[in-house]
Write a structure and sequence with these properties.
The chain is mainly alpha-helical. The chain has 9 helices and no strands.
């Protein structure tokens, strides 16, 4: 465990040196989240609040989707930017080969490298979800219907979305370490827009009620599916395969 923490901390420090990339990625994340919130508030929340009879359940659905999507975007864009960058840089500079030459277990290296990319995205995603929850509540809901929050909203936005990207980070780094980083990067780049669009549409159109347990359980199921795929591919993770892929 100590080895994992040390490697992850060192990798995160190296990533912090990419100041321009960090600034651009944060700007993109904030732009996407603000655009999402504004669009939902104008197209869905505001009309619902102006109706003769306010549908509180519909408001909870919209708020859940906003909170969930904010966290997903924070995690997803961070992963899109840094997963490919770090794997490519460490392989090309020989950092990975140097680590593999030590007695460290290859699986600990894999977990540490995955966490080094995942944890900053987790912090950012959780902060954006919390800010979105509070901001939309106090701008729209508190004056009329009070502060809206449900346990399943918390599960979807603050637990399920991070679990999905934890599994995805482990899977993408496994693929990138044992093969070409570009292959893992394709998965990351495609996953965010496709999955986010799918879940938002399912949640908003009541195919899966975003404010209730089916939406949260479905997301946890996706996280477990990604984890199972990672476990199935774990046997590929050997020092020889990583060295040959460099």
């Amino acid at each position: 465990m100590r080895d994992i923490i040390l490697i992850a901390a060192t990798s995160m420090k190296n990533n912090l040196r990419l100041k321009i990339i960090i600034a651009v990625s944060i700007a993109v994340i904030l732009l996407c989240v603000v655009a999402l919130i504004v669009a939902f508030c104008i197209l869905a929340v505001a009309p619902a609040m102006e109706a003769e009879t306010i549908d509180v359940h519909a408001l909870k659905v919209y708020l859940t989707v906003i909170v969930y999507s904010s966290c997903l975007i924070g995690l997803g864009v961070n992963m899109n930017v840094f997963a490919f960058q770090t794997m490519t840089r460490e392989k090309s500079r020989g950092n990975m080969a140097a680590l593999l030459a030590t007695p460290l277990d290859v699986r600990r290296i894999w977990i540490a490298k995955s966490l080094a990319v995942y944890l900053p995205g987790l912090i950012l995603g959780e902060m954006l979800a919390l800010i979105s929850l509070i901001a939309v509540n106090y701008v729209y809901f508190v004056p009329e219907v009070g502060f809206l929050f449900t346990p399943w909203m918390a599960v979807s936005g603050f637990l399920a979305a991070p679990l999905i990207y934890l599994g995805l980070s482990l899977l993408v780094h496994l693929i990138g370490l044992t093969g070409k980083p570009a292959t893992g990067n394709v998965i990351v780049q495609v996953f965010l827009p496709v999955f986010a669009s799918l879940m938002i549409n399912l949640g908003v159109h009541n195919v899966l009620d975003a404010a209730s347990w089916p939406f949260a359980v479905t997301n946890i199921g996706v996280a477990l599916t990604i984890a199972v795929i990672g476990v199935m591919l774990r046997s590929r993770l050997t020092k020889e395969r990583i060295v040959l892929s460099s």
